[in-house]
């Protein structure tokens, strides 16, 4: 789950005693990070590997892991201002940016965070509805045969998911329910482990497609333009699978000290990134070896696997349950920001009336309605993940940590380290730009043939 750890991580001061609030260790932080990182993005890695091939695919995974580890270390050092053990705490990512950079950086950081949260709501809606439809398709293929037309209209499932979220959205403080992170972790590991197991079984029994050192072949699988676009889109999918910097400061704020929080956080980041990278290698490489260049965009809903149908069904049920809660967890900070701003500006409008908060009822319902509508208009799994990954990767994982570290250490302009950090940021910006452009192109291409409420997949 991209944000499973937020259930407890997003607790801030809220009147809780320091000793009660900060009891986290390297292991709890590691659990939060792994829960936040391993999620629906893992389902696209076989497809991404098919675009990149046996050389660039694993190298890309390792490079993104190394960059994420390094920049998250820089970000962890910015938890406190001044002395790393006793300096003023920054409770959120935005507060850290405000403390070190200020000005337009704060607005840009908030914009990136909330756009990512909004976009993730769309991504979760699409992924959950595709998985719900896949359950019916799986049963259809099992009982009627693999050649049967078992296509489904995903719009119906998207609307159903939206109705469920309208109901759950009215529960205040839902994101603070401690059991949500536990359920998210169990569901995430369950469907990811099933995907790995099924891919391994298929590889052993006989691969269904050809693999190459360079991925999809120009003139055989795709044309030259498609190869370029899909390669960049694959980079966005990989970036989405690694992005968790958006909640790193909040995770760090749960850690006890001594030792200093940044030391514990660096240890947790090393353990969690190593674990997730190993898991991603298994998912991506085994999925590619099982399906070759024809690897589906979503390994559990693209129907490379038909049997055992009940196991495929179980994996997709796990995805749906995971994302029902995940939607709430990830959108709660956005709800809190809007409702907090309204309470400050118009306290009468945002107040409860007869036990009912009319503003919350209307605003959250409208929010879910807009997300549901956009998901119906753009139900394209890989393209949406590519867009989300590119939005989150450069600004939140690279740009702000680099800029804050430079300001914190007062690195001289054009010094060797300053130039190296700025070069890293610029290269990552180009990757983000290419991935975002390719993903948008993928959405536009898909929209040419997609008709809302009518097209079946």
TrEMBL record:
Pfam families to which the protein is assigned, alphabetical: Aa_trans
InterPro entries on file: AA_transpt_TM (IPR013057)
Q: Where are the transmembrane segments?
A: 26-49, 55-79, 177-201, 228-249, 270-291, 311-335, 361-381, 387-406, 418-440
Any idea where this protein resides? Cell membrane; Membrane
Top-level taxon in the UniProt lineage:
Eukaryota
MF terms from GO for this chain are: symporter activity
Q: Which UniProt keywords apply?
A: Amino-acid transport, Cell membrane, Membrane, Symport, Transmembrane, Transmembrane helix, Transport
List cellular component terms (GO). Answer: plasma membrane
Q: Which GO terms describe its biological process?
A: amino acid transport
Where would I find the Amino acid transporter transmembrane domain in this sequence?
22-443
Q: How does it sit in the membrane?
A: Multi-pass membrane protein
Q: What is its main location?
A: membrane
- PANTHER family the record matches: OS05G0424000 PROTEIN-RELATED
**Similarity comment: family membership:** Belongs to the amino acid/polyamine transporter 2 family. Amino acid/auxin permease (AAAP) (TC 2.A.18.2) subfamily.
Q: In its UniProt entry, what is this protein called? A: Amino acid transporter transmembrane domain-containing protein
Q: What is the lineage of its organism?
A: Eukaryota, Viridiplantae, Streptophyta, Embryophyta, Tracheophyta
